[in-house]
Design brief:
- Helix 7 crosses helix 10, helix 17 crosses helix 18 and helix 18 crosses helix 19.
- Among the domains are: 182 residues, 2-Layer Sandwich (Nucleotidyltransferase, domain 5); 137 residues, Taq DNA Polymerase, Chain T, domain 4 (Up-down Bundle).
- It has 580 residues and is of the alpha+beta class.
- The protein is globular, with a radius of gyration of 26 Å.
């Protein structure tokens, strides 16, 4: 439970704002209520010169409370206001207390109020006021008064919700989660810099581009001249692989789902090309790039969106949710450099530390954990490398990571196109190499089944639903603690002044003037090191860095070929359209 006695004042805060796609939020008004005294302060912000500072204190002697606080804190940033030092965000606290696997709970403020039997505004009425805020001005006096009153009603809702939630707050850990809201707000406001010309041409010509993709990139004839997909051609290519291939439940046709095609097409050139073709066509028939006036794509981070506490983003403008070649659109401004900094084998390292398996930790700390696993399991000779044994290393990697997700011999054999017996041998080799890990992970599953919950190191809790899913709880320690690590690192980076543009699973994308890139990378890596060391009993996980300056792109050779073809085709279409 959180102790409120140490704070001079406790302010419950809500903003109403517009959020045009691609733009930072545009604040309309703010209402704040002091919890103990009931004093309420209202400020209309949709004016040429809004106040320079918030109408409530934000130093460490006061506590700032909101629901989905990153929204309120984003308004602080766009207004140029300082961010509060001490924050409680009731959204993650409500998510944590209602986190049940495969049981869907509404997570809005309305749902939280209803959960505790408190009066809540009608959802249709709430939607009407949200639309009013999104619409933007000019507002009539009546509209201003109504919007302010609506904002005040949400603040009063926080005032009655807080006492109900106090017993469920997790002390300093709740404050840590509130601290993460500061970093999320900054990321949401910053956005990812992009090649504005590419985005403009893509939005203008992507429908025409699809016809060129079909005509010039479908060398195997998976579509007829009208553009209709030929399932018979795909089925023939699948049968030619000799692989066991999953089928759809309804039609019993071969599944062409993205993940299935990606994993099972490897090594079969026509199907590899089909996978890339379908990704390219999906992108061309998808949504426009939504780019702000400052040539930035803003895909809001939604924290705690999964049962493990991971983030999610709106994939529509989120470049990292699109085919990997589309990352070519990410481009720093002139004189700036981007750095993509990720944890190497993060979940493998977390599993090694939490399980206390010293052999597994030694493997993780080697130059190549998957080769080291092969040598430890006597499946590779001493001195082996990625270059000398690429196929076996790929199998070892799939096994080492698959084990963390409860991958069975059947699943492993399908993923790797090996026999069931060979897959069993891989799993047995892993058991022989890391017996302490296996004993620990079985204990994790048993504990969750008997005690009725799983818990991360910083208190993110998951309870089983009506049906116990062993695989979810087997992987939970790695996923949930990886999420905790990302949150800690993001908070540390924000405190150090690192400009983070995006969080991508186990990586951060940062931007800085090129002359300061070395310092910024060092600060980001220091923040990541501090986070992993804190969570993992003094063990520091490895980090890797890729730099992207204003003359390069975030692409490997294969991705670059597709990117350059698409860019050239868009330029050609634009020249045809303008007659140049």
């Amino acid at each position: 439970m959180l102790n409120l006695e140490g704070y001079k004042q406790i302010w419950l805060v809500d903003f109403e704002f517009g959020a045009p796609e691609g733009h930072p939020p545009a604040p309309r008004c703010v209402v704040a209520r002091e919890f103990h005294s009931g004093e309420e302060r209202r400020v209309w912000l949709d004016v040429d010169q809004p106040p320079r500072c918030p109408p409530y204190p934000v130093d460490a002697s006061s506590l700032f409370i909101a629901f989905s606080a990153q929204a309120e804190l984003s308004c602080h940033l766009t207004l140029g206001w300082p961010l509060p030092v001490r924050i409680i965000d009731l959204f993650p606290e409500f998510c944590r207390m209602t986190n049940v696997h495969r049981v869907k709970h509404g997570r809005s403020l309305l749902h939280a109020l209803r959960h505790f039997g408190l009066d809540a505004m009608d959802s249709e009425k709430k939607d009407w006021f949200r639309d009013l805020a999104l619409r933007g001005g000019p507002y009539s006096e009546t509209e201003r008064s109504e919007l302010m009153a609506y904002c005040a009603e949400d603040v009063r809702a926080l005032a009655v919700l807080l006492p109900k939630m106090l017993p469920y707050l997790d002390g300093g850990r709740s404050l840590l989660r509130g601290h993460y809201s500061r970093a999320v707000a900054a990321i949401n406001v910053t956005g990812v810099p992009v090649d504005a010309r590419f985005a403009w041409m893509w939005n203008k010509h992507r429908t025409e581009l699809r016809q060129h993709v079909l005509r010039e990139r479908d060398q195997d004839g998976f579509h007829d001249p009208s553009g209709t997909f030929r399932y018979d051609k795909a089925a023939a290519a699948i049968r030619a692989t000799g692989r066991v291939w999953p089928r759809t439940k309804g039609t019993r046709r071969y599944s062409l789902a993205k993940d299935v095609l990606k994993s099972l097409s490897e090594g079969h050139a026509p199907l590899e090309r089909l996978y890339e073709l379908r990704r390219l066509l999906a992108a061309a028939t998808g949504s426009d790039f939504v780019v702000g006036p400052d040539a930035r794509v803003r895909a809001p981070v939604w924290p705690y969106s999964t049962v493990t506490g991971r983030n999610q983003t709106n994939k529509r403008p989120q470049l990292f949710g699109l085919p990997s070649w589309m990352r070519g659109a990410i481009a720093p401004a002139p004189g700036h450099t981007l750095a993509y900094i990720d944890w190497g084998q993060q979940e493998f390292g977390i599993a090694a530390v939490l399980s206390g398996d010293n052999a597994m930790l030694s493997t993780y700390q080697s130059d190549d954990p998957y080769v080291a696993f092969g040598i430890e399991a006597r499946l590779l000779p001493e001195g082996a490398s990625k270059q000398s044994h690429p196929k076996v290393r790929a199998q070892l990697k799939a096994c080492a990571l698959g084990v963390l997700y409860g991958k069975t011999a059947h699943g492993l054999s399908q993923d790797l196109d090996i026999t069931h017996h060979e897959a069993q041998q891989l799993l047995r080799a892993h058991r022989r190499a890391y017996p302490t890990f296996w004993e620990w992970i079985e204990g994790v599953v048993t504990f969750a089944d008997i005690q009725g919950y799983a818990l991360s190191r910083l208190g993110w809790r998951l309870r089983p639903g009506p049906e116990f899913n062993e695989r979810t709880f087997r992987n939970y320690p790695m996923q949930a603690n990886a999420a905790e690590m990302m949150r800690l690192a993001a908070g540390h980076a924000h405190d150090r002044g690192v400009r983070v543009c995006a969080i991508v699973h186990d990586a951060f994308l940062i931007e800085v003037p090129s002359v300061a890139i070395d310092t910024a990378v060092a600060d980001m890596r220091s923040a990541m090191n501090e986070a992993s060391t804190y969570l993992l009993d003094g063990v520091t996980l490895k980090t890797d860095v890729d730099l992207i300056d204003d003359t390069s792109r975030m692409l490997n050779d294969e991705q670059r070929e597709t990117w350059e073809w698409v860019y050239a085709k868009l330029e050609e279409l634009e020249q045809q359209a303008t007659g140049q």
